[in-house]
Design brief:
Layout (H helix, E strand, L loop, with lengths): L2 H33 L10 E4 L10 E4 L1 H12 L4 H9 L6 H51 L2 H9 L3 H8 L3 H28 L4 H15 L14 H12 L9
Antiparallel strand pairs: 1-2
Helix pairs in contact: 1-2, 1-3, 2-4, 2-8, 3-4, 3-6, 4-7, 5-7, 6-7, 7-8
Length: 253
């Protein structure tokens, strides 16, 4: 088996269970508005605590941590495939499950904390500017940040899977710490895009669009930090190649 074939088999071995969990998380997000009560229907990861009988203060939005955790798994799960592949490849077989679990906890934990903060910022912006104004402000922030050299520098750091695997090899605690550091660079890279989805009300379509953008952006190779947007050229080329390739002819039986 060639090195490229072996890498493909290894990638599929890691990717399949991750995508199963991610698919289940998306199913929960799709069904959540149908399973919440009348007062919470369609509010995504938010619900409201109502003030007392006097109505002072009005309804205050709070974050539903359970649905927010599901959202983090659904949106960030696809970005875990490559880090997990590199870590498990450098780990003894008997320790792979533990190291993988440590990386998942270390990566998703900071994202959950960051998502709580982003959700509160999105709520505050929606209260001050209205939903449309909050989305517009988040979009401007995301576009401006996306074109800065600092964004490219953070994106480059998310490609350092070898360094992550080398640190994670030292033990479970080191794996959690290494994954948390990796998540920090990912949050810096993708946080504004996540904020756009949250400002849009955590709709499934908004979250799916943000996820696709983050996956496409992560597929781009590292390059020298410079001004200008990171366009998903690799994904677009792959899609164009797939569309241009004719389907194999079916021989009559």
């Amino acid at each position: 088996m060639s090195r490229r074939s072996a890498a493909g088999v290894e990638r599929r071995r890691v990717r399949r269970p991750v995508l199963v969990v991610v698919g289940a998380a998306w199913l929960v997000l799709v069904l959540a508005p149908l399973t919440t009560g009348p007062s919470g229907a369609g509010q995504g990861v938010h619900h409201h605590h109502h003030a007392g009988a006097s109505g002072a203060g009005g309804p205050a939005p709070t974050v539903d941590l359970r649905l927010l955790a599901v959202m983090v798994v659904a949106m960030m799960g696809p970005l875990l495939v490559e880090p997990l592949r590199h870590v498990t490849r450098r780990t003894f077989p008997r320790l792979r499950a533990r190291r993988a679990a440590a990386v998942v906890v270390g990566y998703l934990g900071p994202w959950l904390v960051a998502s709580v903060g982003l959700a509160l910022v999105a709520d505050g912006a929606a209260t001050a500017l209205g939903r449309a104004g909050a989305v517009a402000a988040a979009l401007v922030l995301a576009v401006v940040w996306h074109g800065t050299p600092a964004h490219q520098a953070c994106l480059n750091r998310t490609h350092r899977h070898g360094a992550l695997a080398a640190r994670a090899h030292r033990g479970d605690g080191a794996a959690v710490a290494a994954a948390a550091g990796h998540a920090g660079w990912c949050i810096a890279t993708c946080g504004p895009v996540m904020l756009v989805a949250m400002a849009a009300g955590h709709g499934v379509l908004a979250m799916a669009g943000a996820t696709l953008w983050m996956v496409a952006e992560r597929a781009e190779p590292a390059r020298r930090p410079a001004w200008g947007p990171v366009l998903p050229r690799r994904l677009l080329r792959a899609a164009a190649h797939r569309l241009a390739t004719p389907a194999p002819a079916v021989r009559p039986g």
